[in-house]
Amino acid sequence: MNRLFGGGKNKGPSATNLQAQKSKQIESLRKVGAIEIIRDVEYRVVVSQTNTNLTIIINLPAQFPSEKPVLTVQPAVGHPWVDAQMKVVGCPNVNNFSMHSDLGQAVQAVLEEFRKNPPAVVPQHYILGFNNPTIGSTMVSSPPVTSLPSYAGHFPQTAPSSTGHFPQPTPNAAGRHPTIPPPLPPRRITGAAGELGPEQTSPMAFNAPNFSAEFPTLKDMKLSELHDLMEDEERILEMVLKIPDLGKFAQQRENLSSSCVQLAQSNLSKKPEIENLKESIISKNAEYDQVRAEFESVCLRHNGLSEQFHPSHIQTNLKVAVMEADEESEKLAEKFLDKEIDADNFLKAFMERRTVCHLRRAKEEKLNQIIMSQGLHF
After folding, report:
1. 242 secondary structure, DSSP code
2. Burial level of 301, CB count in 10 A (0-12/13-18/19+)?
3. Residues ≥6 apart with Cβ < 8 Å to 113
4. Which stretches does UniProt call biased (Gly residues) (predicted)?
């Protein structure tokens, strides 16, 4: 009997009211165009703006819908409904969410608010500059920030300007804060003698020489001597090569050239390893395709067997078998009445068919009792 009924008692637990409500909420979420990222955990809705697309990420906690969903916005924007962590905190439908609320309507309320009052997208370098105050510190030193603007509570934190204060955009007629322009690159200050300021940190840095200090004899030479010097290229070259900074520059160039050669050789030495890893990835990809094909084949066979040995399918087959045995016994009775078979053969065959019929009917009734008592499992 246990083998016949396919172990119906091993089925999973019945769906709870919480699961049913969760499925209902997710179905309402799909109606507003949500895309499933992680089943029953994360969904996303894309909002088209003028210059970019905003993505609303809906995260469902483990006890959802008993717990409120968490809505976040990407990329970073400025809006009264969005806090510094890009979470939607100003929507009443989300803040007052309960088990009997409609998640799709809550998300639709956020979408309508974003359409009426489009949020201002904050450039990424502002966020990086604020979160990493050391960025650009070697180029421009800014005074400390002394105060935050009044809208900082619902505008993402941005990098301070060179005056030490945060930029305060002025809303337009539609109430939208314009996107903050990127800051200007730091300027390098040039000294009086043509030398670059302390910001010049490149390994190829070369300061223009002070000619009066490097060539003290030039100021005492006459005009004719200077003309003769201009015509003598070998003498000029000899004087130039004696400049200490020029020798340092040539040495730095040689060091950089040697460093580039070593780096290129190091990269070439890693080529066999990269090729081996590439072949390994190709092999594992082929193995993955093979295992995936086998898995899909086994899944098809599993689905077929699951359908074949489903209790309702077995019950249907038993009902058909009962009717077949009953019809066979009726045919035997008609043959006996028509005197086509004798009494001994009729009695033996009739008893066998009626026994089979009653056994199948008993099995079908017992299976029906199990299905009725544990109907939710099937």
Report:
1. T
2. exposed
3. 81, 91
4. 1-10
- For 91-131, what is each residue's pLDDT tens digit? 998 999 988 888 999 999 999 998 888 888 886 655 544 44
Domain spans in the chain, listed from the N-terminal domain onward? 17-121, 211-269, 311-377
| Residues with pLDDT less than 50, the chain | 1-14, 128-206, 376, 378
**Which residues sit opposite 48 in a β-bridge?**
53
Residue 139: the pLDDT is 38
User: Is 75:124 a contact under the CB 8 Å cutoff?
Assistant: yes
- Give the class (CATH, top level) of 17-121: alpha beta
Dihedral sign from CA coordinates of 102, 105, 109, 114: positive
Confidence at residue 335, expressed as pLDDT on a 0 to 100 scale: 85
Looking at residue 126, its pLDDT comes to 53
Tokens in use for 155?
């505008």
DSSP for 280-302, please give it.
HHHHHHHHHHHHHHHHHHHHHHH
